[in-house]
Amino acid sequence: WSVTSFNELTREAQAIDREIDLV
After folding, report:
1. pLDDT-based confidence at 5, cuts 50/70/90?
2. How far apart are the first and last CA of the chain?
3. What is d(CA 22, CA 8) in angstroms, rounded to the nearest whole number?
4. Widest distance between CA atoms in the chain
5. What is the DSSP letter of 23?
6. From CA 16, how far away is CA 10, in angstroms rounded?
7. ∠ at Cα 5 (10, 8), nearest 5°?
8. What are the CA-CA distances from residue 18 to residues 1, 6, 7, 13, 22 (Å)?
């Protein structure tokens, strides 16, 4: 586990939230 991987997961989660909002 690393901060970098955590940040990447956060970005993916935010991107998914945006896609859900657009639907």
Report:
1. very high
2. 32
3. 21
4. 32
5. -
6. 10
7. 35
8. 26, 18, 17, 9, 6
Confidence (pTM): 0.50
> How long a stretch of residues is the chain?
23
Rounded to whole angstroms, how far apart are CA atoms 13 and 7? 10
Q: Is the pLDDT of residue 18 over 70?
A: yes
- The four Cα atoms 14, 7, 1, 20 give a dihedral, to 10 degrees, of 10
**Six-digit token string for 5:** 């991987």
User: 């997961």: which residue's tokens?
Assistant: 9
